[in-house]
Amino acid sequence: MLSLQKVTLESARYRWYGARRWSPLLQNVSFDIAPGEMVALVGGSGEGKSLLLQCLLDLLPENLRFRGRLRLMATGWTDIPSGSLGQDV
């Protein structure tokens, strides 16, 4: 069973392809989330809250580009069936 120790996002940048060009969505976003910590993502409509969650669940759409580093520090990696990480995060 997967046991997350910490989730870290470092210097994340997202760009979206629409209207025939790439547009920046988020620039240089970084955070750490510890086990049991409650986190609130706040912001206006279209400001990237759902996008951050999609990144953590590995559900990014094809017309979105991510640069940065996502680190999942955990134990039990060998027990995770392929394609099921999003269910455990």
Automatic annotation (TrEMBL):
<protein>
    <submittedName>
        <fullName>ABC transport ATP-binding protein</fullName>
    </submittedName>
</protein>
<keyword id="KW-0547">Nucleotide-binding</keyword>
<dbReference type="Pfam" id="PF00005">
    <property type="entry name" value="ABC_tran"/>
</dbReference>
<dbReference type="InterPro" id="IPR003439">
    <property type="entry name" value="ABC_transporter-like_ATP-bd"/>
</dbReference>
<dbReference type="GO" id="GO:0016887">
    <property type="term" value="F:ATP hydrolysis activity"/>
</dbReference>
<dbReference type="GO" id="GO:0005524">
    <property type="term" value="F:ATP binding"/>
</dbReference>
<dbReference type="InterPro" id="IPR027417">
    <property type="entry name" value="P-loop_NTPase"/>
</dbReference>
<keyword id="KW-0067">ATP-binding</keyword>
<feature type="domain" description="ABC transporter">
    <location>
        <begin position="26"/>
        <end position="62"/>
    </location>
</feature>
